[in-house]
Design goal:
about 150 residues, mainly alpha, 5 helices, about 0% strand, globular
Length: about 150
């Protein structure tokens, strides 16, 4: 194609049915990976809430990677969201000792990360890169994680 005559590419796919089938396949592959073996390494010890929160954060981080697969690599939100999802895992790990303290600095740091991710995922929806339904599902999962903390 001659230079300057490139086709304009829509940010969303034109076939929502094929997108939902692909999304369902992606989700089932992620669940297969995350649930295929039981992980015995548990840095949370007897802190069941901490372990459950980490597992939720792991799933959320995977979901963030999945939905950003549809975002062009040059879009800054793609890398920011992926990096923040990875940081969330580290922040949750830091809560091993002081998980429930409302005034805890680590707890507040986790809540800040969660709130920032909610805003970023909403921006993806506003920009047309992901569906409102996907954005709401991830925002709800993040908000539930924040409620646990």
């Amino acid at each position: 194609m001659p230079k300057g005559h490139e086709k304009e590419v829509s940010k969303t796919t034109s076939n929502p049915v094929s997108e939902s089938i692909k999304d369902a396949q992606d989700v089932s592959n992620v669940l297969l990976i995350l649930d295929s073996i039981s992980i015995r390494t548990n840095p949370f010890g007897a802190n069941v809430s901490g372990d459950n929160s980490y597992r939720r954060a792991e799933r959320i981080s995977a979901a963030l990677h999945l939905v950003t697969n549809h975002v062009p690599e040059e879009e800054p939100l793609r890398s920011v969201i992926r990096n923040k999802g990875l940081e969330l895992l580290s922040v949750i790990l830091e809560l091993r000792s002081g998980f429930r303290g409302p005034a805890s600095e680590k707890g507040q740091s986790a809540l800040v990360s969660i709130r920032e991710l909610i805003s970023l995922i909403r921006l993806l929806a506003v920009s047309g890169y992901i569906s409102v339904q996907n954005a709401n599902a991830i925002a709800e999962a993040l908000d539930e994680l924040g409620s646990l903390i």
